[in-house]
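Explain my protein.
***
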Amino acid sequence: MPTILITGFGPFPGAPYNPTIKLVRALARLRRPALADAKIVAHIFTTSYAAVDRELPDLIARHKPDALLMFGLHGRARAIRIETRARNALALLPDASGKALRRGVIATGAPHARAMPMPARRLLAAARETRMPAVLSRDAGRYLCNYLCWRSAESGVRLAAFIHVPKVARFARPKKFSNGAAFSAHSRASGNPALGPRFREDERRMGMGLSKKVFSAADLLRAGEKLLVALHAAVNRT
């Protein structure tokens, strides 16, 4: 029975509501024929470097997952962003515990970036089966999401996918976000949302340019389900 570990993050400065919490919990409760042989483990990280360093190795040692499906909030994203690499870079910004790593890189002497071990194009196609636009991204930023990408890429887990999600209406009480809402420190550290020419061309070819609409939690859950099923299929293929 393959095991898939699904993770999200809690609130952080500037983002008191993080939709990945309820998304991850909802995905863990899914009962679908395509997932009948899978063991789904859900975990929410406190948005801190210490929590990632402490809890990720413990989760991997305890559950021995065949794949990681990780979600994080990108405050400026207008699409599902499938992160294809982790950058060896850090922003000097405090996490939810008020602490920052006072250095510019995650690992001294390590490569500039690590590729995420996942079937990126298959995940992209799966996400685009829903209402939400989706793109491949080469820049996961320099904050906790990118840090988790890096740690997962070096963990030895066969498949590891990180998905940045945009702001959505709340799960419990849908409402639109104000266009004037302040962006969080995480959003500023999440890197330039502009993608490289190859990915822009891919968006045009697929007819899935970046959207300006505010998505609902139901939209996000549909996309999350498609991504989970696609990753599970990839586990079975490998």
Summary: Helices lie at 20-28, 49-63, 120-127, 144-153, 185-189, 197-206, 217-237.
